[in-house]
Amino acid sequence: MRIVCSLGDPHGIGPEVILKSFLKMQRCGHSMVVAGSLQVMEFYRHLLGLPIELERIDAPALSQNLPPCSCGVLPVISVAEPETILPGTLSAEAGALAIQSLQCAAELCRDGICDALVTAPIHKEALALAGCKDTGHTGFLGRMFGVPSPIMMFADARTGLKVALATIHEPISRVPSLISSMDLEGFLRQLSGALKRDFAINEPSLAVLGLNPHASDGGVMGSEEGAVISPAIERLHNAGMHIEGPFPADGFFGSSRWKHYDGVVAMYHDQGLLPFKVMAFESGVNVTLGLPIVRTSPDHGTGFDRAGTGTASEESFYEAAMLAISIAQHRNPTGPVQ
Q: What EC number is given for this enzyme (predicted)?
């Protein structure tokens, strides 16, 4: 499989975790290429003293066979070269490079040149300084591929935990109205289908969390469970889907009930991500479901406080690459793109 990595914010830990992951991937027969900046990658390779050879490559050259990671040479497509590289700092130039890198990498997957995209972390404020209106990878890729509502899901291979978010980067004040107005049933069908296609789970079982404390206790603490969430679950259950809920989120995770399901649906960002990151902070992976391309990412941010120090852990990025390969193989069991 051919994996393309977007650079992420060049002032964050993205280049470091890409390089360290490449060292680990030398044990496999897959290929990796970075879309971004040879200058940035060389800066961090030299700063960290990593035994990797970098090679500039043009996008058209990818139509030929890429060498496997085991050869020790990491190809880099330079979409732009920054005037300055200042680890740990916020800048419009860094945000612009991050989004150019993402665009190039996504196009390589769109055009069938690469099999999967692994994105290094971007900084939302840097994107805004660069004039980008998207708040993250998911929104950008959804707009690029004409997918109005791609699903953000987090997966951990070590525990088996998978948490999908019904709403993503939304203020808490907006969540109830969004849940009430969204096509929750369609969202759950899409999630079930993605688990079948991308994770080879023949009959996925889903647990749905309630929005309100205690899942509203029969309507005492909110109406969304009775009006929206429970009816959607009941209709899907009657149609043959393995789905249960709504469950109170605190007891659900505290009792380890999540272990009995293939996927958990949280109503909002922190409801799902707080327990997930407690259990899988180093190894968790963010995967975007519903896109025509395969896209994964580490579940951490740019780590400006660690950028350039050599202390960033590559575990989450490496796991993201391994999951991307697995999903790509499920989608294309006959082999990699030629």
A: 1.1.1.262
